[in-house]
C-alpha cells in the first residue's frame, strides 16, 4: 500500500519529536508531519532552565536541534505538510495533507496548543524579550524586577502568585471590574503584599527597542490612556499574558473525544477514544504543559502505538 506507515505523528514539537525518536528506535516505519516550523512553542524560548539535564545556556532552538538530530539518526522521516482532513473510521487511518495522503496503522496527535495573544502592537516583536506566556519558564529571569500579569482567571491569579517568588512587585491587570478566579485563589492573592490589582484595563501597546521598555494601558470605562515605563535602573520589566490557550485540535472535532476547551481526552497510556489513535503534549487535557511532560507523553504514546500494532496487525 502506497505511503503506508506504521506510525504517523502529526506535529513536530517536543511531544512529536520524542514520539518520532521512540517510534523509529522501535523499528517502526515512522513519519512526523509538521505544517509550521519544527519545535513548537519552545523555539521562541531564549533559555531553557527547567528541563532536567539542560546544559548551561541551552536555548529552545538548540534543544530542538538536538531532538531533531536524534530523530534523523534513527531513521524517522520528517515532512512539511498541512493536514486538512483525517479519517480514523477504519483500521488503516488516512491522513490527508495539501501535499499528499498518508496511511497509518497508528497515529499520534501532537499538534500542541498556542497561548491566546493580546493582539496588540509590539507583542510579537517583544515575545521572549520581556513578553512571556509562561511563568514557570521565565519567572526567574525577572528576579527583583517589576512584572505585570494580564488576565483575571484562575491561571492568571495563580501565576501572579508564583511570580511573587521572583519579582519585587506583581500587578494583575484585568479588563473587567472583578476577577473571574475562584474566591479562595483571590483571597490568597489579595493577602500577598507583593500583588496589586488594576481593573477595567487593557493593554493597548507594548513598546521597546529589542527589550520591553514600556506598556500603554487603557481604562475601558473612562477611556483614559497612560504609558507605564520600566524603572530607569532596571531598564526593563516583565509582561506575562494569561488569557488562555488555544489547543490546535479543530481538525479532530467530532472524531475524537475532547473537553469543553477543545483539549483531547486520553488515558494514562495516551490513548484517545479511537483505537490506534493517541495524543501527546499540549493538545491533551493535562495538568502541566511543559517540555518535560510533552516529551514524556510522546514516549508513552509511541510505546503504546508499538504495542497496539503488535496486537492488531500481522507481521
From TrEMBL:
What reaction does this catalyse?
A: [thioredoxin]-dithiol + NADP(+) = [thioredoxin]-disulfide + NADPH + H(+)
Question: Which proteins does it associate with, and in what oligomeric form?
Answer: Homodimer.
Q: Which Pfam families does this entry report, sorted A to Z?
A: Pyr_redox_2
Keyword Transcription annotated: no
Q: Which UniProt keywords apply?
A: FAD, Flavoprotein, Oxidoreductase, Redox-active center
Gene3D superfamilies for this protein = FAD/NAD(P)-binding domain (3.50.50.60)
- For whether the record's keyword set contains Flavoprotein, the answer is yes
Which EC number(s) does UniProt give? 1.8.1.9
Name this protein carries in UniProt: Thioredoxin reductase
Q: Which GO terms describe its molecular function?
A: thioredoxin-disulfide reductase (NADPH) activity
Native species of this protein?
Answer: Alkalithermobacter paradoxus
Gene that produces this protein: trxB_2
Give the UniProt entry's GO cellular component terms: cytoplasm
The UniProt similarity line reads: Belongs to the class-II pyridine nucleotide-disulfide oxidoreductase family.
- PANTHER family in alphabetical order: THIOREDOXIN REDUCTASE 1-RELATED-RELATED (PTHR48105)
At the top level, the lineage of the source is Bacteria
Needed co-factor(s): FAD
Q: Which InterPro entries match?
A: FAD/NAD-bd_sf (IPR036188), FAD/NAD-binding_dom (IPR023753), Ferredoxin-NADP_redctase_2 (IPR050097), Thioredox_Rdtase (IPR005982)
Q: Name one GO biological process term.
A: removal of superoxide radicals
Q: Where is the FAD/NAD(P)-binding domain?
A: 5-298
